[in-house]
Every structure is written in C-alpha cells, then in structure tokens.
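2024-03-11 09:14:02 INFO queue: dequeued item FAD-dependent oxidoreductase, len=462
2024-03-11 09:14:02 INFO validating residues
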Amino acid sequence: MTATDTPLDADLIVIGYGKGGKTLAATLARQGWSVVMVERSPMMYGGTCINTGCVPTKAMIARSEHLAPGAHPQHYREAVAATADLTATLRAANLALLDTVETATVLTGEAVFCDAHTVEVHTTDRGTVTVTGRHIVIGTGSHAVIPDIPGLRQATNVATSTEMLVHTPLPGRLVVLGGGYIGLEFAAMYAAYGSQVTILERHTAILGQEDPDVADCAREVLAAAGVRIVTSAVIDRVDDQGDGTSVVAFHTDAGPETVPADTVLVALGRTPATETLALDRAGVNVTAGGAISVDEHLRTSQPHIFAVGDVNGGPQFTYVSLDDHRIVLDQLTGSGTRSTADRRAVPYTLFLTPPLSRVGLTERAALEAGRTIKTAAMRVADMATVPRARIVQESAGMMKVIVDADTDEILGAALLSYDSHEVINTVALAMRHGITASQLRDEIYTHPSMTEAFNQLLGALH
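2024-03-11 09:14:37 INFO prediction written
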C-alpha cells in the first residue's frame, strides 16, 4: 500500500526489512493486522541476507569455485554484475511481499522513537511520517565495526564486506583484517578469483572455537588456495599511499612487518545497528555491547516491543532470525510458550571450498563438560566409501563426530567437506530427535552421496 505523510496508526510497526521482521509483518498483514514496515534504505528490502550477506557472497563463491589457478578479472567482473542482478530481483520480490498487501504500508526512511508507542519516520520521498503502534518489532540488524586503527578510516582503499560485493576491478593484493567467518570466506573467494590474499588475525590461530584438528585442516585448505594467514598479528597502522593503494603495518612476536594492499577488507566483527533509533525515548534497554536486551520470548524492557535478528545480540544467522519471528508470532497470536530455550542443535556453516559446517559440541567442549566420549575423525580423501567427493573433484577436508560413550547420543559434528552445508542438517535433525549414532550409522542412504559418509565415519567411533 502506498505510504502517506499523514499520521498512521498500526497494530504492528516493524523497523527493519530483514528475515524475522518481514516474515512476521507479512504473516500478520495477511491475517488482517494493520502493519507498517520501515526500512531505511531502498537497497535493503529483504534485509542483509539477500542484499549484502548470505545470498550475494554465496553467489560470488559459487562462480569462483571451479576457476583454474591464476587471475580472473573478467570472471570477477561478470560475477559482480550477475550478483547485482540477482539481488535486485530479490529486492523487488521482497518489496512486493508487503507492498501488494492492502493492510501493509512500507515506509522507506530513518525511524526514530518519540516514545514507547510512537515512531517518526524521516522518509526519502514523503517527508516525516508519525506512526503509532500497538506492538513494535525492531530488526535493524548489525553493521561492520571500523576500529580506531591509525590511518584506517582515512585510507581510500578500505572496504567492508558490503562494499566488497560491488567492488571492481579485482584487487591484485587484498589484505583482510580479521580471520573470523566473514574474513575467511572473502579471503577464500578472492584467492579463487586470483587476488594475492593476506589475512591478519590477532589470535594465535584461526577458528579457535573449533577443535585443533579441524582448524588445522581448514588452514590447509586455505593455504592450498593461496591464502597467506598471519596469526598473532597486531595491526599498528594503515598508510595511504596516495595512489589508491595502502601499506598495512603490523607486528607479531617475530617483529614488525608491512604488507602492501590494493584493497583492505575490514572484517573485525559487527555491532548491532541501534545508534539512530533513540531507544532511550522508548525506554528500551541495551546491553554493554550495544545489543537490545531481550528475554527468552524476545521482549525488550517494554513488553510490547520485541527485538529480532542480529540487533538482539543472538547468533548472527538468517535462519535464527526466522526462528525469532516464530517466537514473536507465538507471543502475539499463539500460546506464548515458544522461546529461545527451545532451540537445540543449531548448525552453522563457513563457506570455504569445501565448506566447514558444525553443530553441537566440539571434542574439547564435551571433555570440559565432563562427558565420556567416543570420537571419529577421517580425512575425506581417505573415505573409500564416499566416491561422491571424488566424482565432483572435491576430496579435500575432513569429517569428525563426537558421541557420548555411555548413551550413544550424538553430541556434535564438524564436517569440512563438499556439500557439508546440506549434510550437517541431517546430523542436527538426528540430535534434536534423539536418533543415536548407531542408528545414523546403519541408515540407508542414496549413492553416491556425501550423506552415506555416516556409514563409514560412525563405524570408526572409538
């Protein structure tokens, strides 16, 4: 429905067009609720995932995976253009999701709280619109952190992950600040297109939350792709060279060092996007880290205001935001019993080539919890009963599973392998529904598939 500059009253105001907010808004609008959706940017209908996150990055990765070694600037330009077309199509579809519903109004502009029930929206096309809502959902997501490293903010060749997705031409030398998920994904992707990539990671190892054997295998995969990883690296400054390049100065225990960069990617974490909302006017509390404080039902300090997605400080995954919407919907129209405490065995994937997917406990965490365990860990290349990996010429990586030795309960798994982002869901489903390791081992799987690896992997438990 077309926005107006007259005051609006709504059953529900949603601030932020991300997965949780848009799904909740569309569901309740179809049920007859009057809904006002506020999105600050016309380039973000549908949220981070489809515009600057999961979808465009995975599209770029997919187009890089089978390139021969060497620089591929033309393939890179084509990938950037194709990804832009893809996100534009998805944006339009997401706008239509609400804009075509009679009971929904989409306002494009900055939302600022006036009080606990009222929001002013400074729209891009119709002036300021005042909206009063019975219920309010905040889903404004997060944004990249740019730390106070000398020269970093002044350098002309510095980019966040969002800016990299529209960045042309292909950088010859890419320096990635941070070896977290975003940094590693972009490093692997740009190396595949032919950039000379250096990762500067302040910790003593990448993927420190993983078991050492899994992290070491991931590092081998990255090294084989041509990525240089420098750990225990403290970044001292970034010196702009005045010609579109810069030099990054850092030091390790071995002493000072510099690395030249055509582009510097800042991947040093993300912070909840709450700065412009004036939450204090609404009486909405935030944590010390800037996230909106919520209870297990995602209610804020104001019971009629909820927060979903990255902004509430939970796991920064689109599928968690989708589950957030289910919890809020249950509060508004259901039994009110669903909560974040119901979540079990939530998997995640780091999209290297091959991807690393994990669910549940690591071996280290299981032992620290006092569990008596059995483990199995196998290199994919050594798994003779899994020909699928060889068929697609993706035999790098390893698979690992952790099982309770007394109960046969699956405690966790790490899969660094082809199609692991699909296979991990089978493990997670088994964990949620009490399927034992022996039962998963003895199931009948299609052939050739990566799932049939469970026959051999779980048979190797000791």
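2024-03-11 09:14:37 INFO annotate: The chain has a mean pLDDT of 94.
2024-03-11 09:14:38 INFO item closed
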